[in-house]
Amino acid sequence: MIIPAEYISLLISIVYTAGVVVFVLLFVLLCNWLERKISAHMQDRLGPMETGGWHGWAQPIADAIKLLLKEDIIPAAADSKLFRIAPYIVFMGSLAGFAVLPFASNLIGTDLNIGVYYVIAVTSIVVIGLLMAGWSSNNKWSLYGAMRSASQMISYEIPVALALLVPVIAAGSMSMNEIVQNQAGGFWNWYVFKTMPFSLIAFIIYFWASLAESNRAPFDLPEAESELVAGYFTEYSGIRFAFFFLAEYSDMFVVSAIAATVFLGGWHAPFPFLSFIPGIVWFVSKAAFLVLVQMWLRWTLPRLRVDQLMHICWKIFLPFSFVNLLLVSLWVVLKG
Amino acid sequence: MNFAPVLLFFAAAFALVLISLILNRLLAPRNPYPLKLTTYECGEEPVGSPWIRFNARFYVIALIFVVFDVEVLFLFPWAVNLKTLGMFAWIEMAVFILILSVGLAYVWAKGDLEWIKPKPDNYLPTQESK
Question: Which of A82, A268, A285, B102 has the maximal Cβ count within 10 Å?
């Protein structure tokens, strides 16, 4: 029996996609446990210790099963259709970002020639889902949360895009794989160090702005539990809530993985003699490191106010990233 | 360019949500009653409708965002080809960014980037404030 080549490549893609989904689920479970442990230890507590025996390792699994077995409640006053659609859109926007992440030189969903652009486009689909969730809940907290998150995410999208342009200029390409390939040969070739100090500024702007884009502390105003009671997902419970949660954690990974790809050399080893270790190990550990930094920041910094948030975006990040972009492009042009 | 895997990722996300919801429907108890289905408002009876006209500050932010997002759109092809286009393209883009920076400076000076817009200098209290 002869199987046509396109079926084989389709089959490989399906297997790869399924693999990524499993990776995301495992990553979220691990992150959930880790975040609880980190927050606990930072606050001089122990965190979950019982479930599963060793330091409560099975706690996130128990929680996932609990969420799956919970009754699905849709408030009578809610717009039922939009309420049901919202988790789909939020999770789809979040998972679609994984399609262009190069886990290793040949481990990539599809190497689009507009990779960076695609990621920016796809991650902002999440905003639509959040607005839907907030509006359809017919709840005042949710509406506030949705409005805040929409204004925050669209504001911070601009510094994120401008910061990502810096490695795009340096590589002369938007393909994720090509950008990584251009950073071969040791950490001094990574774009974060390449055109000092501009690329370092771009990296810092990207990281901070992407925290705001993925609604993480100190920019977690949309879901500020102490004032908005979880914001746009106040009315969501059980398995529907689980998907907002899942999307938030997979967003954390996407954001960190993009930073690892375009600024920190992707799957390349920091020193050439370490390149016998497979690329996927380097890629995941770089991304995981940035995820850890995000957790660390969350439990260290207090939450901002809405006006401070807008102030930072429009009056600090935006002018800085424009000047930075002009200087780095001038540098590249002059160097030839 | 192979966009099929992108579609696969969307389909996988959709399928995962759908399968979990079906599993939930099969496994979870279903016992809704009116009190359970009320809108959450810290235990109080909900007052008024949340579907109202919302603070215009968010609208202004959205307008400014559109301007700059379109600008970023133009920057991407320029960034990819900058090395081959050279100095001329850099000067052109610098002029373009400068023009938009004037817009940002105008919005900034008018106080539209402040969360609470300051009152103009010639502001006089009207009848209602007396």
Answer: A268
Confidence of residue B127 (pLDDT cuts 50, 70, 90): low
Q: Give the distance from CA A114 to its chain's centroid.
A: 18
pLDDT value of residue B120: 67
Neighbours of B40 (CB within 10 A): 18
Report whether pLDDT(B17) > 70: yes
How many independent structural domains does chain B possess? 1
Token representation of residue A4: 């046509």
Domain membership flag for residue B38: yes
Which CATH number characterizes residue B20's domain? 1.20.58.1610
Longest Cα–Cα distance of chain A, Å, equals 66
**Residue B29, amino acid:** P
Cβ contact A220:A228 at 8 Å: no
Q: Which of A10, A21, A140 sits opposite B50 (nearest CB)?
A: A140
Indicate whether B23 belongs to any domain.
yes
* A-B contacts at Cβ under 8 angstroms: 213
Residues 24 to 53 of B: which have CB under 8 A from any A CB? 24-25, 27-32, 34, 36-42, 46, 49-51
b/e for A158-189, b at 16 or more Cβ within 10 A? bbbbbbbbbbbbbbbbbbbbebbbbbeebeee
Subunit contact B28:A70, Cβ cutoff 8 A: yes
Adjacent-strand bridge partners of A107: A104
pTM of the model: 0.85
Instruction: Please name which of A191, A169, A166 lies closest in space to residue A180, comparing C-alpha atoms.
Output: A191
